Amino acid sequence: MAGAFPRVRPRRLRRTEGLRRLARETRLSPEQLIAPMFCTPGRGVRQPIEAMPGIERWSPDLCAEKARELAALGLGGALLFGIPASKDTTGSSGTDPNGIVPITVRAMKEAAPDLVVITDVCLCEYTDHGHCGVLEAGSGTDVHNDDTLPLLAAQALAHARAGADVVAPSDMMDGRVGAIRDALDRAGFASTPILSYAAKYASAFYGPFREAAGSAPKAGNRRGYQMDPANGREALREIRLDLDEGADLIMVKPALSYLDVLTRAREIADVPVLAYNVSGEYAMVKAAAARGWLDERAAMMETLLSIRRAGADAIVTYFAVDAARALSR
Ligand code: PBG
Predict the structure, then answer these.
(1) Residue 98 in 3-state DSSP?
(2) Where are the beta strands (DSSP E) in 187-232?
(3) 242 touches ligand 1 (CB under 6 Å)
């Protein structure tokens, strides 16, 4: 009978690297990797982030230098987060046309015009309470959805005006993709794409990022707007809504605990699907490798490959530069 041992031997295709390469279903290349970057005011400023070894906050001049390096490595792009000089209750430094992100975008686009610069759009880096939107009157923890929308739209517009190639709302307010699309279109930025963090979960794996961005909520948590880790179907609903509102690309975040969601997202979405291999996922590998408990490079490559295999067209990852270097060797 055909189809059974000993005629059939799957190991035949695993015998040599040449055969394995030929039979390989999933490939990883630098253009599928997007590097997150943290920008902060000043000149020549570099601040290491303790829980994310190898990642630093940089001033705009260093971000511009780095942009050249990312472009030379052939990366898919950079995702920019701003750490402003000042924070207030409405996150007004986030909508400033001369705020930290617009300044850095201009510097990066001047240094490396071909590098795709994506900007994170959210209030949490800019509010003194650390929530992703403005708070309901009299509350220290409840975010007012509809009052947040115009601020997100203004922030996205400030980024587009500075030359951002893509704006990426990560706040999880209802209706924000549509609000941003309207604002961009009205201001003459109909061609600026929106990458929506469509299925973003309330995750413990954002811990190191909140150190990097100083954006941990002062009181309460993000479970009133980010998704419940127990829910898969709801992610598909979020994705459909964002596509209806005009999202050009969608993202699932985090990646590793949500590979099933990624696969299902890939099945229903006909736009590019991205995954965010988040700070905690990076920190786990780094911490284990530092103790000699894991082979860092092998764990990094297996992680990224598995995210691609699950359905991601591109991956936002703190490993982007290291992986691109490893791939080009
Ligand atoms: C902002 C934002 C967060 C991340 C990306 N955008 C933090 C959060 O929601 O608390 C997390 C990224 C990471 O952990 O690498 N809303």
Answers:
(1) coil
(2) 195-200
(3) no
State if residue 278 touches ligand 1 by the CB under 6 angstroms criterion: yes
Query: pLDDT tens-digit profile of 237-257?
Result: 999 999 999 999 999 999 999
Report, in angstroms and rounded to the nearest whole number, the Rg of the chain calculated over CA atoms. 20
Query: Do residues 183 and 157 make contact, with C-beta atoms less than 8 angstroms apart?
Result: yes
Q: How confident is the model at residue 186 (pLDDT cuts 50, 70, 90)?
A: very high
Q: Can you give the length of the chain in residues?
A: 329
- Per-residue model confidence (pLDDT) at position 1: 57
Average pLDDT, the chain: 97
Cβ of 124 closer than 6 Å to ligand 1, yes or no, is: yes
Residue nearest to atom 8 of ligand 1 (CA): 206
Which of 3.40.50.300, 3.20.20.70, 3.40.190.10, 1.10.10.570 is the CATH number of 27-328? 3.20.20.70
Please tell me the pTM assigned to this model: 0.97
CA of 39 to the centre of ligand 1 (A): 15
